[in-house]
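Notes to self after the Tuesday call (sharing in case useful).
The group wants a holo model before anyone commits to mutagenesis around the pocket. I volunteered. Ligand is tryptophan. Logging inputs and output together so the record is complete.
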Amino acid sequence: METNDTRRRVFSGVQPTGNVHLGNYLGAFRNWVALQERYETIYCIVDLHGMTVPYDPDDYRRVRLETAKVLLAIGVDPDRSLFYLQSQVPQHAELAWILGTITPTGALNRMTQYKDKLASGAPANLGLYSYPVLMAADILLFRAELVPVGEDQKQHLELTRDLAERFNHRFGETFPVPDPLIPETAARVMSLTDPTSKMSKSDPSEKSRILLLDSDEAILKKVKAAVTDSEPTVRYDTEAKPGISNLLEIMAACTGRSIDDLVAEYHDAGYGRFKEAVAEAIIETIAPIRTAYRRLDDREVARILAKGALDARSRAEALQAEVRAATGIDAF
Ligand code: AMP
Ligand code: TRP
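Result:
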């Protein structure tokens, strides 16, 4: 990592989960890799956030490693990005506490993700409630200016901006106010079994999503079984033909070709042939990731994460000292 880097700083985080799918890749992680070319990038596996819903510790250990390996396989490059596990850098939690002291509970009560999680059965606990404060701490800890996130995280980023401003106002200019970075080409990948809802890791149906580690056969099978409609022309119409439109979008995102171009080629090809072409495009995109994943050695990955945490801690310590001084809790 360069230390006197003048590029704009990007921070993003992902919760450790199994089931990393095509939607995650095309909608988010592919962009993380691309951002490494132009920005100073910091990518964090936010395992403290992941603890806010019930989990099994042994399973979690495995999933944290798997998430790290998937990101490395995709192309997150530890020589160009600061890459580490949130839990290994205690400054995240300290800053979250401090920001918590200036967070109005009314703002947390309005968080739609919190309400959605409760509605879907998550137990109401303080960690889940203050999740957005920890997310603000992640971003501000490195004075990041740009935060690549999906639509669903915009409300959390608004709170981050608000907390940066409140802190600066109360304790003196300390944090830049970060902006969301919504990628121009972000794909919104829909479920293969219900093309009106997003492809999701939590859908009970395995057939609803393509996993990044799926075999070629599994990909072909899932695409062939994808829900479509009975009017047999391939054209883009998200209202009347959500299934076909989703497959067109996926193929466009995988090949870099335009939807119009694909429609021109497959309009009368029949769904069978079109689906085979979509599956092939997905396989070409995903197979290299699977290969890279298999080549990774777990001990080497552990070493990369340890080195990342060491770098992250030493960078976070500088800000920690400043924040402690500004807030009057420095050592005598
Ligand atoms: P999640 O799997 O919900 O933790 O999301 C991780 C990242 O992937 C976030 O940046 C999401 O916005 C993105 N993401 C999740 N599902 C999709 C999808 N179906 N299409 C596009 N992006 C997605
Ligand atoms: N809440 C984000 C999500 O669910 C994950 C996250 C935690 C994050 N901290 C962050 C994203 C900081 C961007 C920046 O997707």
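Two things stood out.
The pocket of tryptophan (ligand 2) is lined by residues 11-15, 46, 49, 135, 138-139, 147, 149, 153, 156 (CB under 6 Å).
The two ends are 33 Å apart (CA to CA).
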